[in-house]
Amino acid sequence: MGALHAGHAALLVRARKLAGRLGSVTASIFVNPTQFGPNEDLSRYPRPFAKDQALCRTHGVNLLFAPTPEALYPDGFSTWVHEESVGLGLCGGTRPGHFRGVCTVVLKLLLLTRATHAVFGRKDFQQCAVIARLVRDLNLPVKLDFVDTVREPDGLALSSRNAYLTPEERSEAPRIYAALVAAQAAVARGESTASRLRRALERRLAAIPGARVDYVAFVDGSTLQPVSKVTTGCVAAVAVWLGKTRLIDNILLSVG
Amino acid sequence: MGALHAGHAALLVRARKLAGRLGSVTASIFVNPTQFGPNEDLSRYPRPFAKDQALCRTHGVNLLFAPTPEALYPDGFSTWVHEESVGLGLCGGTRPGHFRGVCTVVLKLLLLTRATHAVFGRKDFQQCAVIARLVRDLNLPVKLDFVDTVREPDGLALSSRNAYLTPEERSEAPRIYAALVAAQAAVARGESTASRLRRALERRLAAIPGARVDYVAFVDGSTLQPVSKVTTGCVAAVAVWLGKTRLIDNILLSVG
Predict the structure, then answer these.
(1) Range list for CATH 3.30.1300.10 in chain A
(2) Where in chain B is the domain with CATH 3.40.50.620?
(3) The CATH homologous superfamily of the domain defined by A6-147
(4) Chain B contact for A168, CB < 8 A?
(5) Strand stretches in chain B, DSSP E
(6) Cβ contact A77–B137 (<8 Å)
(7) Does A82 sit within 8 Å of B139, measured CB to CB?
(8) What is the DSSP string of B75-139?
């Protein structure tokens, strides 16, 4: 989606590693209109194309694919990809149609670029799971690779949407990840009842000034179904509104 | 779907022509469960695999791809392709979910076989239009080719489902195509009002002993939207039940 930051740079570094010195790395930059809801931030989403282009060049990208919306969605476009399990809850629950747009555009981009490998960031944890399902179910000839979330020194997950935050919101935003770290600490201390963990996490997030919790979930790491007992490999995932900005983050849990 | 007949053989002949002497022709044989409705003929659909295999060999097929349902639809399969315009009416209207199954399996088969060209028969006229839309919208790297319907000497369109017909039904079945030919004759004589053509065609079909009309439509040949005035390039498409067997057929219309 462009508005590249150090998280995206980590994807380019991984892609270069996968491609080797002689392989070709393609980056796509496309603010995909079909994954935004009618009241979301499509029109104000940042599009610093020249800066993005420079970062791609710095990281040795061989091909930068930046189509227009009209090129990807011609008149009469009517074919959509729906993932109907992994994509239902979490962001899929509060952003109806979001993963339909994601699945459709990712399939198109993978076919257009003829990618043999594709790299995605774990900050969009549910997106990674949905795309893994898409690739398996539709027999796409591509290998997926996921890269860990890159964070600011204070813990805030890098996101193009962090640019929307007011200075006050920015100063409170690290408390989202701090709350996830506290949840993992509780799990490490032996707490495994998801409902209790969930309430505690929710309380911490709700205590952030200006925050409104969108969802808090403890789920199985591959099916994304809610769990009642947390085990290693489960994930705590949250979405939180800070003022007009919706931020997501997640943490992989491990017991003991 | 197997149960190969001379219509399928015409597809293989076309595929060989497209591939040239040195190219590779792949045939898929797969009775796709997901394109059958709950009360349809999935379990009794004919599966004469050895005979199909022999016909493929005769026609110089290089690779016969005949997966199991479990191979194409693994546990937890949850990703579906929906075409939401061309596939809505006609067979899509009376067989809900049919084209979802068709689109999903065709995308999978095209990706698995790495086909550069794919050949489909015009008897399944709406299927051709839906697949054309799918290939365009999802940027599939494949060229489509459509082959005219092959008919019995008495005009009946070849179909694997003709095997279901009783001798009495078989003797009446050619009247479906005869009714389509009569519609085209009326168009050639200057009749262009779709509602009148539709009523006349419906009457002819309803007069066939044992017949129940599923749909009769006069549509634009590429959008498949119903037309009020018939012009060259429009298509008359019908589905008719003869006893327990549903048959489809269509005719390309031309004025004067």
Answers:
(1) 166-252
(2) 6-147
(3) HUPs (3.40.50.620)
(4) no
(5) 26-28, 63-65, 79-83, 117-121, 143-147, 211-219, 235-242, 245-252
(6) yes
(7) no
(8) TT--EEEEE-STTSSHHHHHSTTHHHHHHHHHHHHHHHHT-SEEEEETTSHHHHHHHHHHHHHTT
Tokens of A213: 């919790």
Neighbours of B62 (CB within 10 A): 13
Report the CATH fold assignment for B160-252.
Pantoate--beta-alanine Ligase; Chain: A,domain 2 (3.30.1300)
A166-252: CATH topology: Pantoate--beta-alanine Ligase; Chain: A,domain 2 (3.30.1300)
Tokens of A59: 């990281």
Interfacial B residues in 64-103 facing A (CB < 8 Å): 74, 76-86, 103
What is the per-residue pLDDT across B162-173, written as a single tens digit (0 to 9) for each?
999 999 999 999
Reported ipTM:
0.95
- Contacts (Cβ under 8 Å, ≥6 apart) of A21: none
pLDDT tens for each residue of A115-165: 999 999 999 999 999 999 999 999 999 999 999 999 999 999 999 999 999
Q: How many CB atoms lie under 10 A from the CB of residue B154? A: 12
